[in-house]
Amino acid sequence: MKPRIAIPVPTSTDLSYNQRSWPAYAEAVSRSGGEPVQIDLTLSPAQIKELAATCQGVVLPGSPADLDPARYTAEPDPATSPADPARETMDDLLLEDAAAHTKPVLGICFGVQSLNVWRGGSLVQDLSPLPVNHSAGRSVAIAHTAMISEFSVLGSLLEPTEAPLVDDYLRLPINTSHHQSIAIPGEGLRIVARCPDDGVVEAVENDPTLTPQFLIGVQWHPERSYDISAASRALFQRLVDEAGKTKASSL
To answer: Which of 177, 172, 182 is nearest to 145 (CA)?
Structure first.
């Protein structure tokens, strides 16, 4: 059987966003050998837990919403978009199940921010004063590079032809579509990638000395670059491979 990968519907407020974005995550999982499982935001917590228990891995997708700043004890910035409580509840429940049963997790854009806040971290609410246009969007295939630790799990997935070593860091070309980012990493998360131009956190991963769970969060969108980036394919492939080693919690 193919590993079942839970993927929440991105937002409860924008149907068109869901229709154009969720299939890209699902296709990336399918092409990597997994079975994408859509988790609808209208489900009750009990139903979410029941469905999550049948899955071996999790992808937390992007979203047009921003996380409620109250969750990291901050006042909302004027640039912060409205929160999506249904999506936040969904992510929390999926992360709780994944942590309890050591299931692999890949957080993408909003998903890495959600993961970070769930772990007790905080966010930068608006990046617009910075020199890099981090909200470039899906029309820009390569917006800038990410400076990645070669000794990280993420770094181990990269090929030198795509991410050459420059000044002791791997340089991976990435897309970008966000206006917030991680400020202080959550408990057990380590920063493994930054934008070289302004220091914005581009990726975090689980500290393997604390728990063996495979958990990576990236600020870019590997599902959009699956066809052109070996790194994007490797991220999804590793997630599915790790999920294949994990039993569903309902078993």
So the answer is: 172
pLDDT tens-digit profile of 59-108? 999 999 999 999 999 999 999 999 999 999 999 999 999 999 999 999 99
Q: Residue 179 to residues 28, 81, 82, 89, 172: CA-CA distances in angstroms?
A: 24, 10, 13, 22, 20
Residue tagged 């394919």 (tokens): 233
How do residues 141-183 score in pLDDT, each as one tens digit? 888 899 999 999 999 999 999 999 999 999 999 999 889 999 9
Query: 24 and 224 in contact (C-beta within 8 Å)?
Result: yes
Spacing of C-alpha 75 from chain mean position: 24
What confidence category does residue 249 fall into, taking pLDDT thresholds of 50, 70 and 90? low
User: Are the CB atoms for 243 and 58 separated by under 8 Å?
Assistant: no
- For residue 35, the Cα-to-chain-centroid distance in whole angstroms is 18
All structural domains of the chain? 4-126+179-193+200-244 (3.40.50.880)
Cβ(237)–Cβ(3) below 8 Å: no
The Cα 38–Cα 5 span in angstroms is 9
Asked whether 134 and 141 are in contact (CB, 8 A), the reply is: no
- Dihedral sign computed on CA atoms, order 242, 34, 157, 201: negative
Contact in structure between 171 and 202 (CB atoms under 8 Å):
no
- Please list the active-site residues: 109, 221, 223
Q: How many CA atoms lie within 13 A of 219 on its CB side?
A: 35
Vertex 186: Cα angle to 184 and 188 (nearest 5): 130
Closest by CA position to 148, among listed 183, 110, 114, 190: 190
